[in-house]
Design a protein that fits this description.
Elements lengths: L35 H11 L7 E6 L4 E4 L13 H13 L6 E4 L2 E4 L5 H6 L4 E4 H4 L7 H7 L5 E6 L14 H23 L3
Parallel strand pairs: 1-6, 2-5
Antiparallel strand pairs: 2-6, 3-4
């Protein structure tokens, strides 16, 4: 099968929720950052120094927005867990009359209490990754938060497909609208917190 890129990050690599078996779907690789794609991503993120404040890891099939930790099911050491949780929940329940959504080539505006649900009729569960779905050491959001120092590090599990991880073509646009709704709202809060305009 190859290396699961989301088990190959250095932070708490190979501490549980991954496998030494190369035929496993959660094979963590022979060593942290053994994959050139992840080395390039790591180096690119580090090239910005401490100016990166938001990291998003996208997956399919669970309708969840999760933050560190993935390697353990406690929040010990995650001093920003309350802020991470609050941002995700605030975005999920925001009344935002100016949120732009794109559907094919049309731009339209939505109004309502829940940016994603209003845009697409879908709600997402929010919580720490290990507590919300399962343990996954060597995970990218743990590395982004724990080593790269990115305060708002999230994994977003997109909509459920009828065949599990295979998302049908007709769900690509709605998933894109979910992403746009989340990112637009999150970006506004993050820019306000860090003084950007």
């Amino acid at each position: 099968m190859g290396v699961d890129g989301n088990r190959n990050f250095e932070y708490h690599w190979d501490e549980g929720g991954s496998s030494d078996l190369s035929c496993s779907g959660v094979y963590h690789g022979p060593e942290p950052f053994s994959e050139v794609e992840l080395q390039n991503m790591r180096d690119y993120i580090y090239s910005f120094g401490d100016s990166v404040v938001y990291y998003q890891n996208l997956h399919s099939n669970a309708q969840m927005i999760m933050y560190p930790w993935a390697y353990e099911c406690t929040l010990e050491g995650n001093v920003d867990a309350a802020d991470q949780d609050a941002l995700a929940r605030r975005v999920m329940t925001r009344q935002d009359s100016q949120l732009k959504q794109f559907k094919q080539s049309e731009v339209f505006f939505i109004q309502g209490e829940d940016a994603i649900t209003e845009a697409t009729g879908v709600s997402y569960e929010v919580g720490p990754l290990c507590q919300t779905i399962y343990e996954a050491s060597g995970n990218s959001i743990d590395w982004a938060y724990g080593m790269a120092g990115i305060k708002y590090s999230f994994t977003m599990e997109m909509r459920n497909g009828p065949d599990g991880f295979v998302v049908p073509p007709e769900d690509i646009d709605p998933n894109g609208r979910d992403l746009l709704a989340f990112h637009t709202s999150a970006a506004r809060d993050i820019m306000a917190e860090f003084g950007a305009s």
